[in-house]
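Holo prediction. Input below; ligand is D-malate.
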Amino acid sequence: MNQQEMDVFFSAHSFREDELRDKAVVIIDVLRATSTIVTALMNVARGVIPVEDMGEASKIAQNVDSDNYLLCGEKDGMKIEGYNLGNSPLEYTNEEVSGKTLIFNTTNGTKAIKKSLGSAVVYIASFLNENAVVEALRNEKRDVVLVCAGWKGRLAMEDSLLAGSIIHKSCGGTLPENARDGAKVAFGIYEKYGDDIGTVIRQSNHAIRLKNLVGTDDLYYCSQVDITDHLPILHDGIISVKHG
Ligand code: MLT
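Structure of the complex:
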């Protein structure tokens, strides 16, 4: 990373689609959408189709062969009635997802992805595959925007922390010259809280919400760093994997 601009948007609602045009975009939803996408592709899902809402999900599901497609996702953290899988990455085992295409619908994460369709390239980031994203950004020549999904328009600590960590690692530990305000804030969050990401994630607002709904297993799972070198990329509306 050198002269290009770098910015961070802190929620799926905090920007317009045209602000991502021609940029390299990194989508972050640590709890849990991007961690789940990375896990599904690690476990050899064929691809993931992000959708805006339940209406779009059922429209696609009605027109495909249900042997090869799974309807997946959550509303307000809970599995949606009639769906094959919810949004716990731990559900996305090889037995469940191998060879399948997932129609994936979540409260904030897939909305952020859908808003990035007009950008030059879209990388899917989680702590699980952080280094793969960092490596890609080191070679990136375009302006970069890290889009944190957040929660219903609000900042999410776990997403901001990963954004700051990615900037820190891809820029050799110094704030890039052309960092915009969002990148400076995320970088500062990483400098202050980056020593103990597991605790920061488990104490975040969304973690507390999730703990009450589904327990703590997902929180521990999503706090793992670099368990895979898979780099999911969005192409023609489908996310699939590029190996590191
Ligand atoms: C989202 O897209 O808002 C989430 O990933 C919520 C969740 O299931 O934890």
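The CA atoms of residues 67 and 194 lie 43 Å apart. That is the main takeaway for now.
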